[in-house]
Amino acid sequence: MAEPGGGQAYARLVRAQIRSQTQYRLSFAIDVASCALGTLVEAAVVLVVFRVSPTVGGFGLREVLVMSALAAFAFDLADLLVGNIERLSTYVRKGTLDTILIRPLRVLPQLLATDFALRRVGRVAQSSVLLVAVLIYADIDWTPARALMLALTPLAGCALFAAVFLLGACVAFWFVESGEIANAFTYGGKEFARYPATIYPGLLRRVFGYGVGLALVGYQPALFLTGHADPLGGPNWLAWTSPAAAALAWTIALLVWRTGIRHYRSTGS
Amino acid sequence: MSFASARPLRPDRAPDRRARLYRFGALFGAGFRRWSTYRQAALAGLFTNIVFGVMIYSLLRALADDGRRPGGYDTTQLATYVWVGQGILSVVHVWSWNELADRVRSGDVTADLLRPIDPFEAFLAADLGRAAYAVLARMVVPVLAGGLMFTLYIPHRLYTVPLFAISLTLGTVLSFTLRYLVNLGAFWLLDARGLTAVWLLASGVFAGTFFPLRFLPEWGQAILWFATPFPGLFQIPLDVLVERPGPAQQIGSVVLQLVWVAILIPLVWRVQRAATDRLVIQGG
Q1: If phi over 0 gives left and psi between -120 and 50 gives alpha, with beta otherwise, what is residue B254?
Q2: What are the chain A neighbours of B55 within 8 Å (beta carbons)?
């Protein structure tokens, strides 16, 4: 059944998840609402920050809002699609990964479908509205190149975050109780991408900004969209490298994933 | 229903205070030991705390450029706020805790209710044990790491450090009491996920973990301080430590935490009684 029925089986897994998650209706409604509210709160944090300081790392409110909104949208989309891979460490610890491995379906899509978190749809909806509002507020001087950049950036950013999620989850194959290491790069990565790279000390900026590529999610595209020169001296075509960075990150993530699956030995409990 | 005795037996009616204290101590020790077995997890958490510490401090430091004092803090106070803050995050544990809610959903909670100890007291003792372990495993290292990288604020008033210890303990009790209340919601909703999400959002923003609450306008601060218990979880212990307010306010804010504890614990008992009264145990 693996070949012809595969897609159908995943769809069924997702549908089962949706049914189970909407079972407790009131609880689910509260969950979606607070998820969506979280996006607004994160945007409000930028306003609070600018209440106590007129500039942040040499940038004004408009530019930082653009960075923040781009990063939030890319992250929320990645979180919706693959964020539940975080639960891999629980599967490894409890040994329940075995049940997934013996099914005649591919492991990664199965895991993603099994824990699909419907409530995150509310978050993505909110952050896309927010992104549009911010772009209008920022009063960008639109050119075809900038429009193309806007189309490209959230997708590449989403792919990059998704690769980080996957890599973070893979740590569980080697260190069973490793949950929080991944958080430094996933949630930490989002936090990093929301503010100008100029505020970070050199080592952190090099590792997160250009090693992991997170400067290409918010900072560089926002520079390009608002026509602000990079105070760090980076060329302004740098923002265009985000799809290549995302592709590279995915190649590495899939390689590590494959090695991890081969390395996996059940906990035997 | 014949299972009416599923109502928790109130331990305060037990005559022997010493036995009660002993029981509390034993559960505290169990909580401490339970968490001390996850050494890899503690190490992973430390790494994350340090990365977040550098990031949050970078942002706050950028706000203090040109000699500005955001929220009235100088840069050493901000550094201590961030680094000790990263340290106490896992002590106070403002994140999700679903143990009770899961037990409600699975029905295991009936076993807790039949024990001769109030479940709130039992879970609180274990949580304080967890917090004590977190002080050793999660608080000391980020503070040292921060101290190596940045200049931290050293308290001047003699009583500040003991007052901080009291304030941190009260913050942990407050946090647990609120988490317990959220979990009690599962008796009505059967599933505490929605309530947990609200709790995560509220505790994150209103306790001061996203940014020091003193960045907010005065009226916003007044509402948070006096109408909600949230600043008591995180902001108050840290403000006590960095001596942001004057001595009177410093002591006053700890009294405020105490008032919230005095309001919330009886509330927990009332909600718990209402919850167990409507509990239906599925026969099987």
Answers
A1: alpha
A2: 188, 191-192, 200, 204
**Closest alpha carbon within chain B to A35:** B197
State the nearest Cα–Cα gap between B87 and chain A, in angstroms: 14
Contact with chain B for residue A61, Cβ under 8 A: no
Q: A3-37: string of b/e by CB count within 10 Å (b at 16+)?
A: eeeeeebbeebbeebeeebeebeebbebbbbbbbb
Is A97 in contact with A104 (CB distance < 8 Å)?
no
Residues 6+ apart with CB under 8 A from A70: A131, A153, A154, A157, A193, A217, A218, A221, A222
The ipTM estimated for the assembled molecules is 0.87
Is A1 part of any domain? no
Cα A25–chain centre separation: 27
Question: Which among A30, A178, A180 is the nearest to B197, CB-wise?
Answer: A30
Residues of A in contact with B39 (CB under 8 A): 177
Cα distances (angstroms) measured from residue B281 to each of B99, B190, B269 = 18, 13, 20
CA angle B75, B78, B83 (to 5 degrees): 125
Q: How many domains does chain B have?
A: 1
Structurally, how many domains does chain A consist of? 1
Look at residue B1 and tell me if it is in a domain: no
Per CB-CB distance under 8 Å, the chain B contacts of A24 are 189-191, 193-194
* Shortest Cα distance, chain B CAs vs residue A59, angstroms: 11
Q: Identify all chain B residues contacting A211, using CB atoms and an 8 Å cutoff.
A: none
Residue A55 belongs to domain spanning: 6-263
Q: Which domain holds residue B30?
A: 17-278
CB–CB of A57 and B62 under 8 A?
yes
* Inside any domain, residue A36: yes
Domain membership of residue A268 (yes or no) is: no
Please report, in tens digits, the pLDDT of each residue of chain A (269 residues total): 444 456 787 788 778 777 777 777 777 788 788 877 888 888 899 999 999 999 999 999 999 999 999 999 999 999 999 988 888 888 887 778 888 888 877 888 888 887 777 778 888 988 999 999 999 999 999 999 999 999 999 999 999 999 999 999 998 888 877 667 888 999 999 999 999 999 999 899 999 999 999 999 999 999 999 999 999 988 888 999 999 999 999 999 999 999 998 888 776 54
Q: Which two tokens stand for residue A36?
A: 């969506």
E-assigned strand segments in B192-231: none
Residue B210: list chain A partners with CB under 8 A: 41, 45
Give the minimum alpha-carbon distance from A108 to chain B in angstroms, rounded to a whole number: 24
